[in-house]
Amino acid sequence: MSQDALAAKSGAERLAGKVAVVVGAGQSAGSGPDDETIGNGRAVAMLFAREGAQVLAVDRDPVSLQETRDLITSAGGSVQTLVADITDEEQVEKIAPACLDAFGSIDILHNNVGIGTGDGSVNRLEREVWEQIFNVNVTGMYLTCKHVIPALRANGGGAIVNVSSIAAVATTPLAAYKSSKAAVNALTQNLAAANFRHGIRVNAVMPGLMDTPMAIGSHSNALDIDPDRLRSKRNNLVPLGKQQGTGWDTAYAALFLASDEARFITGVLLAVDGGQTARVG
User: Which of 138, 159, 172, 199 is deepest in the core (most CB within 10 A)?
Assistant: First the structure.
């Protein structure tokens, strides 16, 4: 489904009056907004802005971040950007002040950054790769939450949405990625429990097989396989319609969890996977 078709399905602005920090708002090379291979983070930033939020888009890649900003502003959205690497705490510390300076408050934190490059089975996995995957996928998320939650508490509450993966609960040969995403789930539930009394809801989206630039590009390169052939193989693994999801599927799940429609939901790990985890259960 195209961006325009998805936009036509939107009703009233579901994030009107909200301020959202979207971490990982750029994406890997390869797509524009009308391409089904748009990345999760870019789709989230665009959708949040379209649904009325003022967005601080954060990414370590200034070129990709500017592309996201241009797409949002061209559609009439409100966005500011900040270049930051979430593995560097000094850079993470700048996120909340930048958002407060730009928009005056923070209502939503969306954490989208994750990697799996170089991963494999434990006996073949280099320690440096293990540590880098955990540093990005878990420690980076811990740091963004650590430094943004005080602003959410000062605001009287809000919502955090973390992007995990069904790899956390399903079989995969990627030892570090699976373990790091299981840690993301645990962190999500811990943060939810720690912030009940502050009115901050914390949930996670667990995407399954998605047709995104990172998923297709990185895996086709690593496996030395044609991207279209890889898409076909991945499509056949999805129970629902034999078709992968897209960044828009992740974005719409995140939109619901970030919105007031989910005001009574916290500590939830929501699989967006075309039924793959139903087989696990």
Answer: 159
C-alpha to C-alpha distance for 262 and 141, rounded to whole angstroms: 22
Question: Please, are residues 30 and 37 in contact by the beta-carbon 8 Å criterion?
Answer: yes
Cα separation, 83 vs 92, whole angstroms: 10
Q: Is residue 278 within 8 Å of residue 212, measured between CB atoms?
A: no
Query: What sign has the CA pseudo-torsion 138, 139, 144, 148?
Result: positive
Nearest-angstrom CA–CA distance, 83 and 226: 33
Q: For the chain, how many structural domains are there in total?
A: 1
2 assigned to some structural domain: no
DSSP track, 24-55: T-S--SS--TTSTT--HHHHHHHHHHHTT-EE
Number of Cβ within a 10 Å radius of residue 130: 18
Count other Cβ atoms within 10 Å, centred on residue 139: 16
- Residues 49/38, Cβ–Cβ less than 8 Å: no
Number of C-alpha atoms within 13 angstroms, CB side, residue 71? 27
pLDDT tens-digit readout, 59-113: 999 999 999 999 999 999 999 999 999 999 999 999 999 999 999 999 999 999 9
CATH of the domain at 150: 3.40.50.720
CA dist., res. 49 & res. 60, Å (int)? 20
| Alpha-carbon gap, residue 217 to 28, rounded angstroms | 8
Tell me, yes or no, whether 185 lies in a domain: yes
pLDDT of 29 reads 65
pLDDT category, 8, cuts 50, 70, 90? Answer: very low
Q: Which of 130, 177, 248, 252 is catalytic?
A: 177
Q: Is residue 150 part of a domain?
A: yes
